[in-house]
C-alpha cells in the first residue's frame, strides 16, 4: 500500500483499477526527401485527419460538458488552420527537403517556446494548445495510435502525467470513475472539466505515473487530495464507507433542489450559479440555482474568428433570460484582457496585462464593441429579469461613463421603436481594492455590488493567483480581505442596495458562515456547489454568525480565522 498527497480538484471518492493513459512514442528520424510534394501531401493528410477527430471531440465535449468547454477545441482547430504555423512547416519541407515529421517538430517547438516565454498567461495557454494539437498530427504522420479515452469501456481511474483538454473532453463518466495526475492545479483545464463531469480528481501528485501500474487498485479522494495505491482491506472498507456517505449526501442535497435558501434562524439568502453559455442554464436549474449571479459574456467572443454580431448576442442573452423565467440574471459585460485575449482583437503588448487595458477599460476605449453588446442586452431585457454589471471598475468616472453609454443606447432603441425594460438594475463588480475602500461613495450611484474575490484577493495581496510560487498568499480568509468584503456589504446596505459575491470564495465552506454573518445577500458559485452550500446555510444561524463579526475582523491571520470558524461550525 502506498499513499500520495496531491491537490483536491473535484469532490468525491473513486475506487477502481488503474488505467494509465500513456503518451504515444513520437520519436522519429530526420530524413532528406526527394519528393517534396508527396511530403507536403502527407502533412495535409495528417492535418485533415486531425481536424476530423477534433471536430468529433468538440461535439463530444459540447454534449457532455456544454459549449463553454467545447470552445477549447475551437482554439485547437484554429491552430490546425493557422497559416503562420502550417505555411512555415511547408516552407521548411520545400526549402530544406526534410521529412514532414522533422519540419513539424522544429516549427511547432519554435512557436511553443515563443509562447511559453511570454508573461501573458493567455498566451502561455496557447503554447499548451499547440503542443496538444501537434502531438496529434505527429501521431498520424508516424502512423501510431493516439490516446483515445473515449474508447474506454470498463470502470477505471485514469492515471496520467497530465490530461490535455482533448483527453478530458472524451472521458465517459459511466466508465471513468476518476483521475489523478502528476501535475496540475485546481484551476487547470482538467480540474475544471472534472468538476463539470462531477467525477473525483486529484492532481499534482508529482509521482503517480511512476508509483503505479495498470490494473492496480487505486483510491482517489477528491475531497482531501489523497491517492492510495493497492489499499489494505481495512483502508478499502474505510473509503468504501466514505464513498457511500458522499453518495448519500448527494441524495440529501438533491432533495433541496426546489427549496429556498434559508438559515436556521429563518433568514433568506439567494444562491446563484456562475455560467458561461446558455447551455449552462440547465445545470444551474438542475442544481437548484435561484439566479444566475454571473453570466460571463466573454465566451461569446472567445473561440470565434470575429466579434459576435448584435443579433447573435441578443439571441444568447434572450435564451438565458427565458430559461431562467423571472429569476434574476446578472450579466457581466465584456471582460477581455489579462489572461483572456481574442485572436482577432489587436490588444497592445503590456508589461502586466492584468493591470492594463482590460474589461471596462477596453470597452470604454473601444466604444463600438461596447455599444453593440449594450444594445443586444437592452433588446433582450424584456424577456426576463436582467441585471447588468460592469467589471474592473476603479473610479466613479468609469461607472458614470459606462452607465451613460447604456442609457444612450436605451434611448436610441426606444427611438427605433424597440421595447426595452425599465426595470434593469445597473451594478458593478468590486474586484479592485480602491473600489472596496470607497464603496460608500459608489453605493450612492450603483444599484448593486457583486464582489469578484478572485481578482480582489490577488490585487490586495499582490500575488498572482496562477503563480504557484506565491500561491500561499492567495488567502480568502485574510483579515484584510474580510475587512474589504465587510466594507462593501455595509456600504450597500447603508444605501438600501444589495451585495452579492461571484468569486470562488462564495462557495467556500469556511467562507460561507463568515459571509452569512456579514450580511451578504447573494452567493454565486459553480452550479455543483449550490446544493452543498444550501445544506450548510440551513444549519447555520445568521444571528450567531453575525455576533462573531468584530472578533473575526480583529484577527491577525487567515489561519486564526479558519481555526475559529472550524471550531464554531464543527467543520
List keywords for this structure.
alpha/beta, Glucose Oxidase, domain 1, Enzyme I, Chain A, domain 2, TIM Barrel, 3 domains, 8-stranded mixed beta sheet
Written description of the protein model:
The protein has 571 residues and is α/β, with parallel strands linked by helices. It has 3 domains: 2-23 and 148-252, Glucose Oxidase, domain 1; 36-142, Enzyme I, Chain A, domain 2, CATH 1.10.274; 255-569, TIM Barrel (Alpha-Beta Barrel), CATH 3.20.20.60. It has helices at residues 36-65, 67-80, 83-96, 100-116, 121-142, 165-169, 189-197, 208-211, 233-254, 281-286, 310-324, 360-365, 367-380, 396-415, 433-437, 439-443, 453-461, 479-494, 511-518, 530-538, 542-547, 549-553, 558-569, and strands spanning 2-5, 7-10, 13-20, 156-160, 176-181, 201-203, 217-221, 226-229, 270-275, 291-296, 328-332, 385-390, 425-430, 448-451, 498-501, 522-525. The strands form 2 sheets. An 8-stranded mixed β-sheet has the order 1-8-7-3-4-5-6-2. The chain has an 8-stranded parallel β-barrel with strand order 9-10-11-12-13-14-15-16, surrounded by 4 helices. The longest helix has 30 residues, at 36-65. The chain starts with a strand and ends with a helix.
Amino acid at each position: 500500500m502506498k499513499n500520495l498527497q496531491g491537490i483536491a480538484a473535484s469532490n468525491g471518492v473513486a475506487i477502481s483499477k488503474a488505467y494509465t493513459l500513456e503518451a504515444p512514442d513520437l520519436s522519429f528520424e530526420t530524413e532528406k526527401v526527394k519528393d517534396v510534394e508527396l511530403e507536403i501531401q502527407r502533412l495535409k493528410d495528417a492535418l485533415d485527419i486531425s481536424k476530423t477527430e477534433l471536430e468529433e471531440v468538440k461535439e463530444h465535449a459540447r454534449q457532455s460538458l456544454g459549449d463553454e468547454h467545447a470552445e477549447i477545441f475551437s482554439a485547437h482547430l484554429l491552430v490546425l488552420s493557422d497559416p503562420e504555423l502550417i505555411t512555415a512547416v511547408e516552407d521548411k519541407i520545400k526549402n530544406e527537403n526534410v521529412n514532414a515529421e522533422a519540419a513539424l517538430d522544429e516549427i511547432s517547438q519554435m512557436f511553443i517556446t515563443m509562447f511559453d516565454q511570454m508573461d501573458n498567461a493567455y498566451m502561455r495557454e496557447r503554447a499548451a494548445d499547440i503542443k496538444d494539437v501537434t502531438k496529434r498530427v505527429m501521431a498520424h504522420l508516424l502512423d501510431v495510435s493516439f490516446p483515445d479515452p473515449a474508447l474506454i469501456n470498463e470502470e477505471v481511474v485514469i492515471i496520467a502525467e497530465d490530461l490535455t483538454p482533448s483527453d478530458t473532453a472524451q472521458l465517459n463518466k459511466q466508465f471513468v470513475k476518476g483521475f489523478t495526475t502528476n501535475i496540475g492545479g485546481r484551476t487547470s483545464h482538467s480540474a475544471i472539466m472534472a468538476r463539470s463531469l462531477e467525477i473525483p480528481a486529484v492532481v499534482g501528485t508529482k509521482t503517480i505515473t511512476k508509483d503505479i501500474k495498470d490494473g492496480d487498485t487505486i483510491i482517489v479522494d477528491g475531497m482531501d487530495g489523497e491517492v492510495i495505491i493497492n489499499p489494505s482491506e481495512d483502508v478499502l472498507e474505510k473509503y468504501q464507507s466514505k464513498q457511500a456517505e458522499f453518495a448519500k449526501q448527494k441524495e440529501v442535497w438533491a432533495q433541496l433542489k426546489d427549496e429556498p435558501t434559508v438559515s436556521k434562524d429563518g433568514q433568506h439568502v439567494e444562491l446563484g450559479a456562475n455560467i458561461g453559455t446558455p447551455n449552462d442554464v440547465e445545470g444551474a436549474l438542475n442544481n437548484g440555482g435561484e439566479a444566475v449571479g454571473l453570466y460571463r459574456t466573454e465566451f461569446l467572443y472567445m473561440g470565434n474568428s470575429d466579434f459576435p454580431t448584435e443579433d447573435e448576442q441578443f439571441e444568447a442573452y434572450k435564451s438565458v433570460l427565458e430559461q431562467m423565467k423571472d429569476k434574476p440574471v446578472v450579466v457581466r459585460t465584456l471582460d477581455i484582457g489579462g489572461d483572456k485575449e481574442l485572436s482577432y482583437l489587436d490588444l497592445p503588448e503590456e508589461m502586466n496585462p492584468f493591470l492594463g487595458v482590460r474589461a471596462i477599460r477596453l470597452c470604454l476605449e473601444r466604444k463600438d464593441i461596447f455599444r453593440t453588446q449594450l444594445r443586444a442586452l437592452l433588446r433582450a431585457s424584456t424577456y426576463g429579469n436582467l441585471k447588468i454589471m460592469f467589471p474592473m471598475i476603479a473610479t466613479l468616472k468609469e461607472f458614470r461613463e459606462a452607465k451613460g453609454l447604456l442609457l444612450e443606447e436605451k434611448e436610441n432603441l426606444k427611438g427605433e421603436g424597440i421595447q426595452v425594460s425599465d426595470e434593469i438594475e445597473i451594478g458593478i463588480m468590486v474586484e479592485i481594492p480602491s473600489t472596496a475602500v470607497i464603496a460608500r461613495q459608489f453605493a450612492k450611484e450603483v444599484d448593486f455590488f457583486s464582489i469578484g474575490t478572485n481578482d480582489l484577493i490577488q490585487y490586495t495581496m499582490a500575488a498572482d493567483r496562477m503563480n504557484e510560487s506565491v500561491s500561499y498568499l492567495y488567502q480568502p480568509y485574510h483579515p484584510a480581505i474580510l475587512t474589504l468584503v465587510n466594507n462593501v456589504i455595509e456600504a450597500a446596505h447603508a444605501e438600501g442596495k444589495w451585495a452579492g459575491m461571484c468569486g470562488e470564495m462564495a462557495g467556500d465552506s469556511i467562507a460561507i458562515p463568515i459571509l452569512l454573518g456579514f450580511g451578504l445577500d447573494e452567493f454565486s458559485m459553480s452550479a455543483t456547489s449550490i446544493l452543498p452550500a444550501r445544506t450548510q446555510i440551513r444549519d447555520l444561524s445568521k444571528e450567531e454568525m453575525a455576533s462573531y463579526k468584530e472578533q473575526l475582523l480583529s484577527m491577525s491571520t487567515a489561519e486564526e480565522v479558519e481555526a475559529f470558524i472550524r471550531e464554531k461550525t464543527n467543520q
